[in-house]
Amino acid sequence: MWKPNQPGTGNPATPEPVRGVAAPTIEPTPTRPASPTPAGIPAAATGEQATIGKSLVIKGEVSGSESLFIDGKIEGAINLPGNRVTVGRNGQVAANIMAREVVVLGKVRGNVHASDRIDIRSEGSLTGDVIAARISIEDGAFFKGGIDIRKPGANEAKGAAAAAPVAEQVPVTV
């Protein structure tokens, strides 16, 4: 007796097509184009940038992983490590800023910590202390505060030593 599914029988059984049933049609679904930011590349390198317009006012903490252009008002804190913060000509910031790069064309009141550089343009005004590896202040710019130039990677070691309480640094005998 012939059994089509047995090994060594020569002709494998071919499935018989199903008749009388229409195959379902699948409509293509619209897809979003792939994100222009490849994984692992910071948004600043690809040109992605969020914008806070002239009429917007933000009170609180701003944080994220893309560059930011500020033309409105922000009060609080801006934490965008690894990205650029640009304060536009109409921008008014009353906040401490932490970013890779900070460009000031408007008004900033607060301390600024940039892991790479700070650029205060001729129309810009910065009142507060600055920590950065590089700083540029154009003619006509206003700056009032202290400047701490640190080499990249040096700020973590200094910050940890300064943050340690004195009681832990002094040996105690019992």
UniProtKB/TrEMBL annotation:
InterPro entries: BacA/B
Any Pfam family hit: Bactofilin
Biased composition (Polar residues): 1-12
Region listing for Disordered, in residue ranges: 1-43
Family according to the record: Belongs to the bactofilin family.
Name the record gives this protein: Cytoskeletal protein CcmA (Bactofilin family)
